[in-house]
Design goal:
Blueprint lengths: L1 E6 L9 H11 L4 E3 L6 E8 L13 E9 L2 H14 L8 E3 L4 E7 L2 H11 L4 H4 L1 H5 L10 H14 L7 E9 L8 E13 L3 E11 L5 E12 L3 E3 L3
Parallel strand pairs: 1-2, 1-3, 3-4, 5-11
Antiparallel strand pairs: 6-8, 7-10, 8-9, 9-10
Length: 236
């Protein structure tokens, strides 16, 4: 287990924080203590403050489990309990990604899906909901909402690639073919590029939805935020 330690300046300490840390360190087993590297991603970060003001800024610190601010001997006792219980937990594994990775899901679009989507979004456009009206228009029958098909691509990114914990930052979509009730859409996503920030990666992903006839119905370009405590890029 890796634990990062950051001390405040000690300008107004109300207790002997150094002694508390020495006792904590002596009791710890199988712990790598990280000091002097605020950018390191650790299992825990302990921010040791000498008083209740807790003037150390905790935003730069990234932990797989928790960032803890210690302001009293009672707080040291609290983290002793956390360290003891941490050994009983399943080890956390960050999701490893590499450029070119692909993932997909498949779904048949039903009339019930279109009705539910209209109810949730308040989009009851007659092109989706009124067969008589839609039958007199260009496509000659009701079509599913474009965003319903596009949301399948977002679902791949949220659940498979990158997966749990990713945050959608930006997306652009092109709707290139109508989706009808009964169509089966395969949504595919590919990891194409990324840049590294201090506490996260910003990834570029391209996606497309293809129907049962092999026709592309929707395309998407998206940017995802992937926090370093949840994801790592192979080779980093």
């Amino acid at each position: 287990m890796e634990i990062g330690i950051k001390f405040c300046g000690g300008c107004n300490s109300c207790y002997d924080r150094g002694e508390e840390f020495r006792k904590l360190k002596a009791e710890a087993v199988d712990v790598d203590w990280i000091m002097g590297d605020d950018t390191k991603i650790c299992d825990y970060w302990f921010i040791v403050c000498g008083c209740a003001r807790a003037c150390v800024e905790d935003k730069p610190f990234v932990a797989r489990k928790e960032v803890c601010t210690l302001k009293s001997p009672m707080d040291f006792q609290m983290v002793r309990s956390k360290m003891k219980n941490a050994g009983k937990e399943e080890p956390f594994q960050r999701r490893r990604l590499s450029l070119g990775m692909m993932a997909s899901i498949e779904k048949k679009i039903t009339e019930a899906d279109v009705i539910d989507f209209a109810r949730l979004t308040k989009d009851d456009n007659k092109m989706h909901m009124d067969a008589a009206f839609a039958g007199q228009q260009w496509f000659q029958k009701p079509i599913a909402h474009g965003m319903l098909a596009g949301s399948l691509i977002s679902s791949v990114m949220g659940t498979k690639l990158p997966g749990d914990g990713t945050i959608l930052m930006e997306a652009s979509m092109e709707f290139v073919h109508p989706v009808y009730m009964g169509d089966t859409i395969t949504a595919k996503v590919t990891f194409t590029a990324y840049k590294e920030e201090k506490i996260c990666y910003i990834g570029d992903f391209c996606g497309e939805g293809i129907n049962q006839d092999g026709v592309c119905v929707v395309r998407m370009e998206a940017r995802q935020m992937m926090m370093k405590n949840l994801f790592e890029i192979k080779g980093e």
